[in-house]
């Protein structure tokens, strides 16, 4: 039975983590920094820096505007304004699949798929198969001086229940609620759950967040241990030292997920990224759980790629004890409106403190090109004489993430990804 229980855990983990994340993010009576009640905007107002420790590998290209939805009563109408920049709204269902990406100005009714009703003219319906949903708007910006322009975009975004949108009355969102017990780190909360707590929460969530038709085989399997919509988990199906076996299972699951994830790893030169079906997983349950654990809310590949590199061209692990050249023959290939960046992170997956507060280089950095049009970026702890093409990497171990938004997948097949070579001597003058 433990094998079935393990399958059930992997299957249900993203749903339980989404719920825990929503509970934490909406644990407030009114909108505050990084929290907002259900069905209300949570607008980020600043870029992450080296002091930011809330989420690993933070993005310093975009400002987020998020909403956690309860769609059980009626649709929510999201008005997206016209912008002069990359601004896309990813809508995820309760199982972490991408239900839609809103990339044009307009009014959208984010609705439960089973909702029956009529929409006003000019409102586009966005079906979500679960009553729990999450949207992440990503708005690109060019440094701190560009923040007022992003705030203006955020200020024009509107969100209200469909009934209020139709009535035309001024909408005042209701107050939320706060409970001290819901101040937690979501992934830690879920990983600390005992079997009864975890599976009964999963069973409860599956009632309003229905599994898909494709899950039929899995549901039949895990029903044998009383796991499924509305069921009551019976811990007597577990044998041996339940607490110890549960702890061992969770440790082994994480190792298995990492191994399973390698099947979906793609190469871009020396860089690696997670490929399809990321963000729309269907029955790839282990991959879905891995991505939820490592980076909840990942985009599908047509929206963004996240290649990572940890070694130089000689296969040696990157370290701030040495200095390197990051060499671009040409920049990442993106479609119209897309952009790219390369961000440095320490071994702890956080941004690296440095004297010029520079954490990434991107297509807005004004990098100086070589005579042949290629570009060399210096990766080092100490500043070179000319800092325009410098990406500080601190003194310890580090790695780089490239972000390619709206990638040109066809062009990337023949594109030469940037290489990293050590500079000799190691100290940059």
From TrEMBL:
Domain DUF1214: from-to ranges = 304-408
The record's section on SUPFAM superfamilies has:
VPA0735-like
Domain DUF1254: start-end pairs: 38-161
InterPro entries according to UniProt: DUF1214, DUF1214_C_sf, DUF1254, DUF1254_sf
State what protein this is by name. DUF1254 domain-containing protein
Instruction: Provide the species name.
Output: Mediterraneibacter faecis
User: Highest lineage ranks of the organism?
Assistant: Bacteria, Bacillati, Bacillota, Clostridia, Lachnospirales
């Amino acid at each position: 039975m433990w094998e079935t229980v393990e399958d059930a855990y992997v299957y249900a983990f993203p749903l339980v983590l989404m719920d825990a994340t929503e509970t934490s993010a909406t644990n407030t009576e009114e909108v505050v920094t990084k929290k907002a009640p259900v069905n209300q905007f949570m607008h980020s107002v600043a870029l992450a820096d080296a002091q930011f420790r809330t989420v690993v590998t933070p993005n310093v290209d975009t400002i987020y505007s998020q909403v956690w939805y309860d769609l059980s009563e009626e649709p929510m109408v999201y008005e997206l304004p016209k912008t002069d920049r990359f601004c896309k709204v990813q809508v995820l269902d309760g199982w972490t699949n991408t239900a839609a990406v809103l990339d044009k100005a307009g009014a959208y009714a984010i609705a439960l798929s089973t909702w029956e009703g009529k929409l006003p003219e000019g409102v586009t319906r966005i079906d979500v198969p679960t009553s729990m949903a999450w949207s992440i708007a990503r708005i690109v910006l060019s440094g701190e001086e560009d923040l007022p322009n992003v705030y203006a975009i955020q200020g024009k975004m509107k969100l209200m229940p469909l009934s209020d949108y139709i009535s035309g009355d001024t909408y005042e969102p209701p107050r939320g609620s706060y409970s001290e017990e819901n101040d937690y780190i979501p992934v830690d909360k879920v990983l600390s759950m005992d079997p009864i707590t975890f599976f009964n929460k999963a069973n409860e969530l599956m009632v309003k967040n229905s599994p898909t038709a494709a899950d039929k085989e899995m549901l039949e399997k895990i029903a044998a241990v009383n796991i499924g919509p509305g069921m009551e988990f019976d811990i007597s199906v577990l044998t041996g030292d339940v607490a110890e076996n549960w702890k061992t299972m969770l440790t082994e699951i994480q190792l298995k997920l990492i191994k399973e994830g390698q099947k979906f790893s793609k190469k871009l030169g020396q860089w690696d990224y997670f490929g399809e079906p990321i963000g729309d997983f269907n029955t790839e349950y282990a991959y879905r759980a891995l991505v939820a654990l490592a980076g909840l809310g990942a985009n599908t590949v047509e929206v963004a790629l996240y290649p990572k590199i940890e070694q130089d061209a000689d296969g040696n692990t990157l370290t701030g004890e040495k200095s390197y050249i990051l060499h671009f023959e040409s920049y990442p290939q993106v479609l119209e409106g897309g952009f790219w960046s390369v961000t440095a992170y320490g071994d702890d997956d956080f941004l690296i403190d440095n004297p010029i507060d520079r954490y990434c280089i991107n297509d807005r950095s004004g990098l100086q090109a070589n005579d042949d049009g290629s570009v060399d970026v210096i990766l080092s702890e100490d500043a070179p004489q000319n800092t325009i093409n410098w990406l500080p990497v601190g003194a310890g171990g580090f790695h780089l993430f490239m972000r390619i938004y709206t990638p040109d997948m066809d062009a990337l097949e023949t594109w030469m990804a940037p290489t990293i070579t050590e500079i000799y001597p190691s100290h940059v003058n």
